[in-house]
Amino acid sequence: MAIAEDATKTGDVVDELVAWLEANWDPDLTVAEWWERLGLSGWAAPSLPENAYGKGLSRNDTVRVQQAISRFGALGAPAGLGLALAAPTIATHGTQEQIDIYVRDIVTGKKAWCQLFSEPGAGSDLAGLTTRAIADGDEWIVTGQKVWTSSGQTADLGMLLARTDFDVPKHQGITWSAIDMHQPGVEVRPLKEMTGRALFNEVFLSEARVSDDAVVGGLNKGWAVANTTLMHERGALGAGGGEGTGGGAMPGTVAGNLTKRAGALAPKGDDAGRRARAGVLTGGSAKLLIEAAKFSGALTDPIVRQDLAELHTLGELGRFNNLRLKAAKAAGADVPGIANISKLMMSRIVRLSRDLGLRILGPLGMLHSYDEAGRKALDKVTDNPFRSAITEMALFAQGPPIYGGTDQIQRNIIGERVLGLPKEPNEDKTRPFAELPKNS
User: Fold this and answer.
1) Is 89 in contact with 159 (CB distance < 8 Å)?
2) For residues 66 and 78, what is the distance between their CA atoms, to the nearest angstrom?
């Protein structure tokens, strides 16, 4: 009965959305005008609460909403870390004024965000960060270095973790704030990956400034706020995280999409299918590789078929874990460690996808180009529409088990916080950060 009722409710949500799209979608609007309509209606980020420009829907219903927008042929919600991480964090810990300033600009695509967490000496041990923020009247002066900053080169604002007190235990002296990425004192340097792309950056902060009213969650209380951000990050990255986590275009003032015609960026033909396949790191790779195996004739190989079945099964387990979490939340409960479990499952999925994809390609898996022109040329020569996606997936597969918290960190969290296993002895909780030995 509960499942039937849930399906009926989901159908009502999609029906309501389609009716709204029929009345509001206009491909001749600019992207900025369309995102204004979509964002203020609550359909851009329906998982957010109503006071934060959302509709309070579950993640699964949110994914269905995003898929329905794509099927309709309308431009989806703004992509990027603003919608995925900053908005739900600010909705949870921010004041209503901060929600109206920051979240509004996120759901309407006016501002793009990046995440300024990891540092050269504080990756797995994020609470060991040393970027310093010093009070100066009603502002903070920030100096330090961040690394592995996704989309830093196109961001208007950053989710900044900085140390505001060195004389308390390390988890207690951190503050989460929004920082203007366009100001003097912020330098972004792209880092080129083995795929040939530069998704990540290092960011140098040299006496950059943050206003007091940009502090989210309270002074020196940033570790709790950061954990909310990380929870959403691991949930989005994890197996079953959904295929609708990104929209059709990048938001913000740098990407250059706001003045374009919305219809020009909306999905056309089989674009929706290609975008769904782009969710390969969250469990969607089975669809891509099944199609690739059919195309190449590898589907008759029993070992390939067995691995494809495993890949599909892992994706389905991730999806059912999300349904399990949804049911628990509806009953006022939770599933401890589910985001960490999903992140670990995603790591297993990308490794299997890498190995299986290259086996399906055979010798073609040794061909890869590092720019768009080369990719098109290779696609034409090899006459294989899957080769480019599979080789890039294989090269990129080394990253996901590291970013968002390494596999080892996820296992530690599950062991200590979920299973109650004893922690390694240390003085992190009692000794001031300034007195802790560094890099040891």
Assistant:
1) yes
2) 11
pLDDT in tens, 332-345: 888 999 988 988 99
Cβ(245)–Cβ(234) under 8 Å? no
How far is residue 130's CA from residue 145's CA, in Å, rounded to a whole number? 8
Q: 285-296 vs 387-396: helix axis angle to the nearest 10?
A: 130
In the block, which residue shows the tokens 């919305």?
A: 262
124/105 Cα distance (integer angstroms)? 31
DSSP E strands in 42-131: the ranges are 113-116
Q: Determine which of 45-49, 158-162, 183-187, 321-325 has the lowest per-residue pLDDT on average.
A: 321-325
- Alpha-carbon span 343 to 347, nearest angstrom: 6
CA distance 143 to 161: 11
Asked if 369 and 392 count as a contact pair (C-beta separation under 8 A), the reply is: no
- Residue 349's alpha-carbon distances to 19, 125, 236, 309, 386, in angstroms, are 37, 25, 14, 12, 18
Residue 44 φ then ψ, to 5°:
-70, -40
Question: What domains are defined for the chain?
Answer: 2-110+233-237 (1.10.540.10), 113-220 (2.40.110.10), 279-405 (1.20.140)
Beta strands 113-116; 157-163: pairing state: parallel
Question: With 70 as the cut, is the pLDDT of residue 273 above it?
Answer: no
pLDDT of residue 240: 55
SS3 122: strand
Place of tokens 């579950």: 58
In a 3-state reduction of DSSP, which class is residue 141?
Answer: strand
**Residue 90, both tokens:** 């600010």
Residue pair 196/370 in contact (Cβ under 8 Å)? The answer is yes
